[in-house]
Amino acid sequence: MQPVLEILAVDDFALWPVGEHESYGYLVLDGELTPAEVGTAVMRIADCNDFEPEEEHGPCPTDPLGTFLHGLLTMPDLFAAGGFRVTDNVTGTAFVEPGCCSGLETWRDWLEVLDGTGYAGFGHDPSSVAERVGGTVRLTLDAYGEESSPVIELPVDQVRTLVTGAQRDLQDFLSLAGTWAEQHLPANAAAVTAALARALDLGPTQ
Predict the structure, then answer these.
(1) Is 143 exposed, middle or buried, given 0-12, 13-18 or 19+ CB atoms closer than 10 A?
(2) Reduced DSSP (H G I as helix, E B as strand, rest coil) percent helix, strand, coil of the chain, to 5
(3) Among 57, 95, 174, 189, which lies 20 to 30 A Cα-Cα from 125?
């Protein structure tokens, strides 16, 4: 189980260094990313929220950096396209793939599967779902696909361990991003780091 961020290729971004990625691929978020990969992730999360906030959030700055970061820094509800992806490391089979409209900010839906309603969906195309059935969790890659979908059942405790590990990866990424922001966005480092924490539904780094 890995936290992944959906990436869109950008050819002319020049506000800070970013890596090269193909559109609609996924970038795994953890503490091992290169500075360029962190820059890509921050760019993408900011871009996910790059629309005109409501009037009460203040006028949009006129400089390119301020304009690009405005939504990320002022919107109360942030979105980060992606989610927790679950794959079999041996076969490469995916059992959960974040679909359209799935966001990392809702990763705690996994806790609902374990300790709450017992069910969570993760967007569409594919329509991946997780369902708790007694002491197991059933993961289905595409619950509404016309063809048979990969399915796996795992013990609840194993899924809990996987979720804890993915949460730790997210927290490690946030810590790395905080250091990156101090180097590349010194005037906005604290605000950007706090915004990323909100976009990923995490507490601020210590």
Answers:
(1) middle
(2) 40, 20, 40
(3) 174
